[in-house]
Amino acid sequence: MVSDSVPAALIPSAANTKNLGKKKRTNRSAKLKQNKIEARREQWLSQGSVKSKGCKDVIDSDGHELPLSSGNHGKRPLEQLETRHRVEEDDGLIHQHSDSESPANSPTGNDSGTNFTGSSGSSSGSSSSRSSSSYSSAGCCSGNITEEDDDEEEEGGGEEEGDDGCLDDWEAVADALAANDKRQNPCSDSPPSHGDESVVQMASSNCEDPNRGPNSGSRNLKPESANLVPWTGNCRAWRADDAFRPQSLPNLSKQHSLPISDRRCGGGVLWSRSAMPSSCPICCEDLDLTDTSFLPCLCGFRLCLFCHKRILEEDARCPGCRKPYECEAVVETEPSVLGGSLTLRLAR
Amino acid sequence: MKTSSGGAGGGRPSSSSAPTYSWAPTTSVSASGKRIHREMVELNNDPPPHCSAGPKGDNLYHWIATIIGPPGTAYQGGIFFLDIIFPSDYPFNPPQVVFKTRIYHCNVGTDGHVSLGMLKDGWSPALTITKVLTAIRSLLTNPDPYNAVVPGIAHLYLENKAKHDLVAGEWTARFAK
C-alpha cells in the first residue's frame, strides 16, 4: 500500500524516471531514514528553540547557497507544519500526492524533492507534503544535523523519543553519527567517508546546495576511497544505494575498479567448487564451458575438445581408462556432414 | 642492419612457403611445452621417491632423470641416469626414455632403451613422467623376463636368479656408483 502509493505520487512530480526506480529500491531503508530524520527534526526543534545560535548559523550557510531562499525564512512554521504532518502521516498518503507536486515548481526542487521523497519513502510523504518551502526548511534541519556535533546526541535522543527505534533505525543513527564525525573531521576520513557522503546526502537530501558543501569536502576524501569515478559520474546512483550505504558503496566501487580480477576469481572459485579440472589434463589449457560440459567417456576422464579430436584421429582410446571411445558414430558422421576433404583426412 | 633484415627476410619466406607445415608443429610444440612445463613443476613440488628429473639445459624437451636403485634388489645403491626426450606432440606420443647408465636388466636394451609397455602401445596422454619413472623403478624391482629385450638376461633371471642378481650387482657397483 504505502510503497505503491509513494512511487505513484512521485511519478508526476519527479521529472527523473531514474530516480523512481532507485526510490523503489530504497523505499524501506528510506522510510527508516525518514523516521530518523523526523526524529532529528523533533530534536532539532526542541534544541533549536534552546540553541538559537546554531540554527542561525545553519540557516545562514544554507541561505547563501540555496536558490530557494523562501523556504529558509519559513523554517519555524514549517517545522511546526512538519510536526502536524507527522501526526497526519497515517492519512498522509493523500497529502503526498497533492503536495509532492509542489516541489516540481522550484527548479532545484525537482532534484531535492525527488531525492527527498525517494530516500524518505512513504513516511517522507509528510515531509514532501510540507510543500516546497518545507523542503528548504527540512534541508536546513538536516543540514544542521549533519553539521553540528550536538546533533549526534540529539539524534540518539530523538530516536528514542520518536518510538521509531527499530534496529534499523539504530543502524541509521550509527551511520549518521559516523557521518557527522566524518564531516567534522574531514582529515580523519577515508573508510567512513563513504558512509559520510551518503548520510550527508540523505540528511540534506532536500537541498542540493548543502550537498555541494559536503560533497566538495568529501570529494577530497573520495580519491582515497576510490569512489571518485562513480561519484562524479552520477551522484544519484549512489544516493539510491545510500539506503544500504556503508556496505554497498565500497563493494560497488570495488567492482568498478577491479572487474577483471573479480571475474577471474569468481570463475576459479566456480571451477574449484564443481570439482572440475580447471585445465585439460592433456594439453594443460584451460577448459572452457563447452569442455567442462563435455564428457566423452563413461570413466569420467575429461579433456578438452581439441585433445579429444586429436586422440580420435589416432588411437581413439580414452586416456583415462584406455578403452576405445565410443565415438565411432561421430567419426562416421563427420565426413558426410563436412564433405570430401574430411573423409580424405580420416582416410589417412 | 643487413644481417637483421636478412634474417627477418629469411624467416618470413620459409614460413610463407610452407605455412601449414611450419605452423602446425610450432603450435603443437607450444602446447606440449605447456604440458611439459606443468609436469616439471609438479615433479619439483612432489617428486616420486628415489627419483628426480628435470630439463637437461634450456631445452624443455630433453630431460635428464635419476633413479636410485631400490633397496633389496641387485641395483641397490646404484644411481641410474636416464635421458628423457619428449616428442613435439608429447602428450599424444610417449617420451623416449633411455638409460644412460649401464644396467644389467632384461628389459633394458644394450643401448639403454627401456622396453616398457607404458612407453609404447600402453602409452596414454594422461600418463606423466612421474608415473613413467615410478614404473621404471618398479621394473627394477620386478623385471619382466617375458617381455625382455635382452633374452640372455631374461633366461638367467628365470633359471638362476641368484646368479642374475650377482651379475646385476656387479654391474651396479661398476657403472652406477
Automatic annotation (TrEMBL), chain A:
One of its GO terms (molecular function) is ubiquitin-protein transferase activity. Residues 15-166, 181-227 are annotated as: Disordered. Residues 101-117, 201-219 have a biased composition (Polar residues). Pfam families: zf-RING_4 (PF14570). Residues 118-143 have a biased composition (Low complexity). Residues 54-65, 76-100 have a biased composition (Basic and acidic residues). It comes from the Eukaryota. Gene3D superfamilies: Zinc/RING finger domain, C3HC4 (zinc finger). GO terms for cellular component: CCR4-NOT complex. Residues 20-34 have a biased composition (Basic residues). Residues 146-166 have a biased composition (Acidic residues). GO terms for biological process: protein ubiquitination. This is Uncharacterized protein LOC107493025. The gene is LOC107493025.
TrEMBL record, chain B:
SMART domains: UBCc. Residues 1-12 have a biased composition (Gly residues). PROSITE patterns: UBC_2. InterPro entries: UBC, UBQ-conjugating_enzyme/RWD. Residues 31-177 form the UBC core domain. Residues 1-30 are annotated as: Disordered. This is Constitutive photomorphogenesis protein 10. It comes from Arachis duranensis. The gene is LOC107482263.
